[in-house]
Amino acid sequence: MDKTDVTDPDYFHKVVDCQWACPAHTPVPEYIRLIAHGRYTDAFMINWESNVFPGILGRTCDRPCEPACRRGRIEDKPVAICRLKRVAADNRGPIDDRLPPIPAFKNGKRVALIGAGPASLTVARDLMPLGYDCVLIERDPQGGGLMRKNIPSFRLPVDVLDEEVGRVLDMGVTTRFGTEITSLQSVLDEGFDAVFVGTGAPRGKDLRVPGREEADDNIHIGIDFLSSVSFKHIDAIGKRVVVIGGGNTAMDCCRTALRLGAESVTVTVRSPRADMKASDWEIEDAEREGIPILDNHSPKEFILTDGRLTAVVFERMRAEYDDTGRRRLIPTGEPDVVIECDDVLMAVGQDNAFPWIERDAGIEFNDWEQPVVDRQTFQSTRPGVFFGGDAAWGPENIIWAVAHGHQAAISIDLYCRGEDLNDRPPPEVNLVSQKMGIHEWSYDNDVSNEQRRIVPHVDPALSLRDLSMEVELGFDVQQAVDEAMRCLNCDIQTVFTDQLCIECDACMDICPVDCINFTQNLEEPDLRETLRVPAMNHEQALYVSGDLNTGRVMVKDEDVCLHCGLCAERCPTGAWDMQKFFFFDAKAQPEPTREQPNAA
Amino acid sequence: MTHILKPQFRHPKLRTNALGLTRRDYEGVISTLCAGCGHDSVTAALVEACFDMELPAHRVAKMSGIGCSSKTTNYFLNRSHGFNSVHGRMPSIATGANLANRDLVYLGVSGDGDTASIGLGQFCHAVRRRVNMLYICENNGTYGLTKGQFSATNDRASKNRRGMETPFDSIDLCNMAIELGAGFVARAFSGDKAQLVPLIKAGLHYRGFALIDVISPCVTFNNHTTSTKSYDYVRDHNHMVGRLDLVPEREEITAEYEPGTSADVTLHDGAQMKLSKLDESYDPTDMETALPVLERYKKRGEIATGVLYIDDREQDLHDLIGTTNQPLNEVPADALCPGSSALDAINDAHR
Fold this sequence. Notes:
The complex is a heterodimer of chains A (about 600) and B (about 350). By secondary structure, chain A is α/β, with parallel strands linked by helices. Among the domains of chain A are: about 105-200 and about 350-415, FAD/NAD(P)-binding domain (3-Layer(bba) Sandwich), CATH 3.50.50; about 205-350, 3-Layer(bba) Sandwich (FAD/NAD(P)-binding domain). Chain A contains 22 helices and 24 strands. In chain A, the strands form seven sheets. Chain A has a five-stranded parallel β-sheet, with helices on one face. In chain A, helix 3 (about 30-35) packs antiparallel against helix 4 (about 40-50) and helix 9 crosses helix 17 (about 400-415). Chain A is globular. In chain A, about 45% of the residues are buried. In chain B, helix 1 (about 40-50) packs across helix 7 and helix 3 (about 90-100) packs parallel to helix 5 (about 120-130). Classes of the chains: A alpha/beta (about 600), B alpha/beta (about 350). The interface of A and B includes residues 446, 504, 564 and 566 of A.
């Protein structure tokens, strides 16, 4: 293999599995260390810079970081990253003096942001400090989008939501709430310099099975139901409720139904449980509240008695997978299952929908009625009109919307300055030694053996009666410190300098997880096989040195490295060093001053 | 010195041996030696060899004296027996222990000071008595623990860090051991585990006195450019006289050897030693021709490594003096101490 190019920021970034997996590339280990030090405000600000909604995401994020966490590969459970984020938000001090100043004199550019969800709010957050005049247009009376409408307040308290949405609006965003846009052309006609569409995926899918239309009064689309509950248009539901669907919306629907007074709530899913789209922890939370989840149940018919819905008939299914892994659901032939009920909540997916965009407005749509959007610039086929969040490519989640918002803001800024949208600003990258003494580092390299801490919940006897009582209490300080110490500090990189190595093997001998090898160089597949412990996790890189004096190379399998620094401690020549890799994804930046400072 | 404990986490795919143990189950506490010390590599090689041999830790007795090298018995096999003796007196303790319990595997770890200076007399007698043990001398040519004076194995050509020469000739432990009747004598380099690990295994299999003189650089006091025991010098002047493959009895020999290029020695426990020659003139089974060849290497400043001598008779102390076949702790009490009438009978025989 060729010598690894560690000057490519992607190499070390990829080693920080959590940060690499995060769409917004939040520097996770950095803020976890700050939490361990009790520096909650600093930890909060790192999050706020990167993902805008630390308090919201600390409760509701889809957490792509956690399945990626290296800790999950050396023991059962990853670090509870999401819950630690909430700790930073819960315990932070005042931050007003840390927020970016908003220029009193605007740059004269006006940007329309359609839909007040996380994507649009992120664009506003990034553009307001640059002097843009942002106009946020929203159908609902308040901002927040799906975070307000579709996430029940027992998971996300309204005051947390109001605070974090308000922090963006307080930058001086012009809001037009309660204004539904029925024509994009009318917005374009207002002469904005750029338009961002962040209208989400507001259309819930429906199921066309016999009895659907007749029973319409008692069949509700999941996201519409949640939003009506959120805006207090619905405050009761039938005694027996069936929820159809296996995603997070279904989990929110069933738990909400329970709090509205339903006595029995049943969730039914067409697919096997293992294929359910809902996050494991949301399934757990629903089951903890006593809600049964029946998998392999496909709705077949709605039964009405005297013109009113009384039951749903389900066909039993089983999954078959062909050679390519494609799933087919096949009826098992077992007798149908009839579940009696008063109301049905349908949470079988959602789509973005653009009936309000004129098809002659210069925005191209594909065969599935989705706008054609550039994956890097987020620009549609009409220059100056950008898409992000669920509006761009269908339902994702909040953290993706934030990531889209940051990128779209960069594009809008470049566009308004007349520059090339593909000329993206580089990320902020730094790599600096953490050596403080002979065997002392500026981070705690003693790997904790503690198990993942479990977040305490409020007594269900209380929470099930109160729609707005938050179920999770969050970590206390001691739990937070214990959990934070489980982080392996994957951003503290093992950096190897070929020229200094005397091949004494000390690093190889001490490594507790057999990452380090000195061996003959081979092509990658062979090299992976011949290591002390074969490197069979192909998603993880091999760090290969240049040729050493004996003609061998150092090969490190990054897979389960504990970042304990023992290789560097046992290295007599400093060929190994522990260096902190800091990566901060680019955001829309102030225009560089034309005059370079005089080097002399 | 490293302040943290070695993390308990291990690679989830780490291989286990027939005892269900991983390599890490053969470790001890974290080393307190200088970073980069050759001794730590010897420790790692011992761990590797014991893991491969599937040795149960409780069947091993680690014996050592005083010195950096003698500290290392704390860094491996932390569930084995051990005795850390007075300086240079490890051979006596090992001899006594071996006489009392012949069934344990005796592993002595010593250094050039402990072996060739204060303990030279002890060493010589353990060799000539053919105590059944593997004696590893971690040889760095310097007294590291007392800040780098010349040791008795330092070559005359080797200067210290300040450029000072020694006026004395060095002691060659391998030559001495061959002459004194050691059955298995090898030399190795701590920086070459591919060679060292099979040698350790062969030494542990061998019945009788087995010596491995491991050149193990002292990174702090003897790793400079004018030293003959530095990493660089040993790498540049290492001449392997032969390559050793050790095949345990239960495994089939699969490698092919050209006829005439290898000598086969079958050990008492059925393990096969395959010695393929790298130096045509060298025959490790013939002391008379081997010693002059070793002398020639030494004169040229080269370091001959590999199995230097092997005596396939495999005699040990118990064979020589005809002791009981059982460890003393298994001999019934009335046989072990037959009473005053038996003593009277012995005394009467001498009257």
